[in-house]
Amino acid sequence: MQPINKLEQRKINKETQSKTLLSMSIFIFLMSIGEGLTAPAIPLYGDLLGSSYKQLGFLMTGYSIAFTFMTVTAGRISDKIGRKYLLLLSIILSVIASAGYYYSNLPSTLLIFRTLEGMSRGILWPIAETIVADNTNYDDRGKAIGRFTAAYGAGVTVGTLSGGYIMQFIDLTAVFPFYPILSIIALIIVMAGVTEMKTESNMHTIDTDSINSNAFIEEIKKIWPMCYVGFAYSGFLYSIWGLLSKVADIFGVSLWGIGIIFSLFWVMRLITVLTTDKIAMIIGRKKLLIIGLGCSTLATGIFLIANNFEFLIFAAIWGGIGTGIILPVNITLISDSASEAYRGFSLGFSEFCMGIGMIIQTALSGILGELGGANYTYLFTFIVTLIAIPIALIFIQETEKS
């Protein structure tokens, strides 16, 4: 009878994992609709409240600093106490931040709630990625992470397209009330549908004081090239999130047109994410990652010379393809390379590096845009993304299937 019990247990675990992965996809879809609705509106609303171009960059920088501060801390704490409670905390912070946007009437209050949302995302991303990794094995991890990031992309696509329409034909601030409602629904779904899988990292309590720091250093040595890729990726993505709507506005693009630019970016990203796992199986994850970096570099190069709606559309398409490749492939490479007991730390550290990329690149993008004009906004991001290509080519090693 014992083998039957083991078989039944494996079946139960598989069903639980499937339910958790589905719940995680629905959760991130809802959260990203809210993010897509509000992200293009925030710099425009800040402009309406009297923010300078540089201050608009700092709106994203405040978000990035909070994000960075929370990433490694959240990832390592989750290795000790579990993932789900921290994920719920991140959603609660998002509810507060998103409700605060609607009531902000000064650039300073907008910055406060933007920073609070950064704290939320600094907890959310490493924890959510680790939950997905914990509920998968080597064979299906790439596919599961692809579906998770596809759900994120689909939600942002819906949000940006809807947000552009609402801003153009109703009111700029009318996008804000939807976000806290969607976050509350996501909170309920996570509470009901997500179950933590016991792994080497959370089967027992780890005494932080007794941990050899060399173990952390060894983990970082394994993943640092992917961390630089994450640094480049996040700076590019969040410079778009934080400043593209302002750049487009300078070039005379309508609010509806801005929504279309963002939507095309996320549609192309979604289509790409859905195909990355199959392509990676054919050509390998490393080669695919380098292709993604090439597409993102091309996009930033186009942004440097863009001066009208058509150029911005072209750049957005290539940027969507590039980032759609980079995120799921890079996360999968890190998950495969990290030791199971330190997976939360490794994904948290990678998000920390992404946060540093957000801070540096969004701040410099705002300053460059103010000093040199809109076309200089993405100059530093172009250089950083270009450097990522040889780093990935030389230093990234794919982990063999175990």
Description of the structure:
With 402 residues, the chain is an all-alpha fold. Helix content is 83%, strand content 0%. About 2% of the residues have low confidence.
Structural class: mainly alpha
User: Can you give the helix content as a percent range?
Assistant: over 70%
Give the rounded overall mean pLDDT. 86
The proportion of residues in beta strands is under 5%
Q: How many helices does DSSP assign?
A: 13
Number of strands: 0
Give the CATH class.
Answer: Mainly Alpha
CATH superfamily: MFS general substrate transporter like domains
**What string gives the helices and strands in order?**
HHHHHHHHHHHHH
Q: Helices and strands in order, then pairings?
A:
Elements: H1 2-38, H2 41-48, H3 53-81, H4 84-103, H5 107-134, H6 138-169, H7 178-193, H8 213-250, H9 255-283, H10 285-305, H11 309-337, H12 343-372, H13 379-395
List descriptors:
mainly alpha; single chain; Growth Hormone, Chain: A; 83% helix; 402 residues; globular
